[in-house]
Amino acid sequence: MASPSQPRLIVFDLDGTLIDSSVDLCNSINAALAHFNKPPLPEPVIASYIGDGASMLVRRALGDPEGDVHDEEYVAEVLTYFLDYYRIHKLDFTYLYPGVLASLEAIRAAWPATLMAVLTNKPVNPSRDICAHFGLTPFFFQNYGGNSFHTKKPDPHGLLTLIAEASAITGQTISPAETLMVGDSHVDILTARNAGARSIGCTFGLAPQSLATTPPDHLAHTPTDWLTVLGIDPSA
After folding, report:
1. Hey, which family's this protein in (predicted)?
2. CA distances (Å), 144 to each of 35, 96, 125, 171, in order?
């Protein structure tokens, strides 16, 4: 596919796109399961549950893949334990994917007028804390999480909100067609489609198999490939 023209807004997912957080999320889920006398789950299984927010991650770990469990009080207790544990352990093993920082710097240098933001289904406070820890915060004008709005991705509300906010900052209307969503799962690709935006799917993330059934406009096998797709020379 041809490279997209210069976007005026680039929105990044967090888990599986900017950071590999799978070990800390898996450890936190298994800590919660152990606390409630449930058997642990293998890391690949838990990793396959990531992407639709903390509540759905917990529900799936409890054996409720579609989120129809009726004991909401029990789910709430497990979710609270999971979030409390994760808040403490969210940076034990989490790391930036190699090339993320250099690629963000290259985008900023090549296109200083292009705004960037984070839109994740992870709760917003851990998302912001993680970005601050890894020095990502200065690149983004906004960082929204799964509890920032009444809906989560793939509902387009969060992405459309970012487009409206970016338009207000620039003083010029930014259209969805001038917006690029970068993520590692079908959730991110559907978010882009639902908003009318373009997408890059990251095959190095936590849910690359879902990109086969929901193909993005472009694929990136490493964060440096974002630059290739965008037509930015990484050595410039």
Report:
1. Belongs to the HAD-like hydrolase superfamily. CbbY/CbbZ/Gph/YieH family.
2. 30, 19, 9, 21
**Distance of alpha carbon 61 from alpha carbon 59, whole angstroms:** 5
Residues with Cβ within 8 Å of 6's Cβ and at least 6 positions away in sequence, in order, are 111, 114, 230
- Residues 103-141 have pLDDT tens digits of 999 999 999 999 999 999 999 999 999 999 999 999 999
Q: Which two tokens stand for residue 19?
A: 């950071």
Tell me the pTM.
Answer: 0.94
Please name which of 160, 161, 214 lies closest in space to residue 185, comparing C-alpha atoms.
Answer: 214
**Architecture of the domain spanning 9-20+95-230:** 3-Layer(aba) Sandwich (3.40)
Comparing C-alpha atoms, which of 95, 97, 120, 92 is closest to residue 30? 92
The segment(s) of the chain belonging to CATH 3.40.50.1000 are: 9-20+95-230
Q: 22-89, which class in CATH? A: mainly alpha
Are 174 and 114 in contact by the 8 Å Cβ rule? The answer is no
- Spell out where the chain has E strands: 9-12, 19-20, 95-96, 115-119, 142-144, 179-183, 198-202, 218-220
> Do strands 9-12 and 179-183 pair parallel, antiparallel, or not at all (unpaired)?
parallel
Cα gap 223→203, rounded to integer Å: 10
96 sits in the region (left: phi over 0; alpha: psi -120 to 50; else beta) called beta
Catalytic residue annotation: 13
